[in-house]
Amino acid sequence: MSQNILAQFMAELMSGRIRVVDLTETLTPEFPTIVLPPEFGQAWPFRIEEISRYDERGPAWYWNNFSCSEHTGTHFDAPAHWVTGKDQPDNTVDTIPVEAFIASACVIDCSAESRDNPDFLLTIDFVKKWEERHGRIPARSWVLMRTDWSKRAKPADYLNLQEDGAHSPGPDAEVVPWLIKERDVHGFGTESVGTDAGQAQHLDPPYPCHYYMHGNNRYGLQCMTNLDQLPPTGAVIFSAPLKIRSGSGSPLRVLALAPKA
Ligand SMILES: O=C(O)C(=O)c1ccccc1S
Ligand SMILES: [Mn+2]
């Protein structure tokens, strides 16, 4: 039976009736990484160095060395990333069950609100209004917060750092536990540099998305793009991080399968 279904799936994919949407930013040395207060360790930006390019260093091949943080660019957050998730089972990128890397997605469009207010916070009421139009969020779905933040091409606009830190949208401290308890969501995804809002250090608890999602053995995706190309419901997300031993996360290629518009 499943063989038949997979053959039908490939026929739909090859026909174009299923679209593949790339939700990944290009890794470049210029792509911004999260900036924490100076007393804390910082994420490495993406660095790349050519080893050879069909030349005397390697006549028939082109390759590079690269380095970056586990949390550079479009990346996956494992539960071990946050102290609340440190004792969760299978909480690192190499131990998370691989079935978790394929899941449905609900896309909540907050782009207008985020354009008008960089500190916009997604609330329970906003999600309930979304559900009135698009139906209840299915269990084990990703909730992807569309803010169109990825359209901010300049790193300075993307990080949006002011004297008191970053200003970018995210979920409030009530909606995250509600999504977990009442909707059993798989994880939370954003277009900005973190799954939490730029001013989330002032929420209670600080960084509520990290605090609750990872504390409940759920996952995060951030620095996503092209969420405006996805339907509110019906997309399937492929998000397999690098299999880093005891890794807290990793850059990855995030792809969505969506019905032809
Ligand atoms: O997961 C991340 O990349 C992230 O947003 C983060 C990383 C470390 C500390 C705080 C935050 S808020
Ligand atoms: Mn992260």
TrEMBL record:
Name one process (GO BP) from the record.
L-tryptophan catabolic process to kynurenine
Q: What SUPFAM superfamilies does the annotation carry? A: Putative cyclase
Q: Which domain of life is it from?
A: Bacteria
Q: Name one GO molecular function term.
A: arylformamidase activity
Q: Which UniProt keywords apply?
A: Hydrolase
Q: What is its EC number?
A: 3.5.1.9
- Pfam families assigned: Cyclase
Q: EC class of this enzyme?
A: hydrolase
The family database entries (PANTHER family) matched by this protein are listed as: CYCLASE-LIKE PROTEIN 2
- Protein name per the record: Kynurenine formamidase
